[in-house]
Design a protein that fits this description.
77 residues; mainly alpha; Non-ribosomal Peptide Synthetase Peptidyl Carrier Protein, Chain A; globular
Length: 77
């Protein structure tokens, strides 16, 4: 999967989970500080990512993720 396709899908998942519009979601957007996610939102987002991308997210990823770009890069590596 290429970066742009993954970014678009992640943006859709974030928009469904958080009170932000897709236009507010940029690669450099920080999940907590910029988009207002809390730990529960992030856990639900991870579950949504696992379901939509058919992947198992490593627990290590949670400690490393702070931006939308971090998620997309994780999924496209």
């Amino acid at each position: 999967m290429d970066y742009n396709t993954a970014f678009e899908k992640i943006a859709e998942l974030i928009e469904a989970q958080l009170p932000v519009s897709k236009e507010q979601i940029k690669p450099e957007s920080r999940l907590v500080e910029d988009l207002g996610a809390d730990s529960a939102n992030i856990m639900i987002l991870i579950c949504d990512i696992e379901d939509n991308f058919n992947v198992q997210v490593d627990n290590d990823m949670l400690a490393k993720v702070s931006t939308v770009d971090d998620i997309v890069k994780y999924l496209t590596k």
